[in-house]
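Final report, section 2: Outcomes. Of the targets proposed, Cell shape-determining protein MreC is the one most frequently requested by collaborating groups, and we therefore present its record in full.
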Amino acid sequence: MLQLVDFVVRNRFFLVFVLLEVLSVWLIVRNNTYWGATYFNTSNYYVAKTLAFSNSVRDYTKLNEINADLANENAHLHAQVARLSQTNAAQSPAGYVPDSAFAARFTYTVAKVVDNETNKANNVITIDKGTAHGIKAGMGVISATGVVGKVRFCSEHYSVITSILHSNFMVSSKLVRSKEIGYAKWDGKDPNLIDMIDVSKYTKVYKGDSAVTSDQNSVFPPNIMVGRVETVAVNPNQTFYNITLRLATDFRNLSYVYVVQNHQLVEQENLKLRTIEPKK
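The predicted structure is given below as tokens.
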């Protein structure tokens, strides 16, 4: 308290000066229309700026919550799109009516990426959902923009995904315009590019064409983006194109993914096993 009194006594002339200046400004604003309007316009401008900054800070702190809500909404929309694409498939012959259970066989679980590799020859991704959330090995994984990979193994609360940026991972893909089916396989170099192999050179391939997951796929729903044709080359000694795709998913900025469950996968796999003849 004594220090405060001492401060006021030592700076009394300056404090009186400041007080008189404030009083003078107040009197000018109060009794002069022009300066009054200028003051209020200026003060409103800075108050608005302050409120806008405050709202921006508050919105920024809620980004995680907003992103989670959007991811859940996207999962719901993915399920609807997959069901509608099977029910109203444009390439289906007249009179074909898909089974309703088949059309609705895919469901989605939202997960957050907690670890992600892009600079190795065999990259994996870790997510924050595991067996406690119904995740199982072999399930497909996609993002809001395209294919991500396949679940490799799980613990109770985490799962490791074999990324599409893995030398041993391939996904059956279809070129939208030419309808040709091949396989997307990473060459272990650029995390933005992937090769598409086994596409016959006797069909037309268009630069910029979209490559999506094909119908011949039990892990991923059909028509999920893989990438767009970046380059097309032909080797005279081969019967297939050398096609490079620019990946639809930006793996360096991957935050949320959707784990895809095919509820009829076990039935499909068990039926295929019956075609394998036992060794004699």
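Helices lie at 2-10, 12-31, 33-61, 63-87, 100-103, 265-273.
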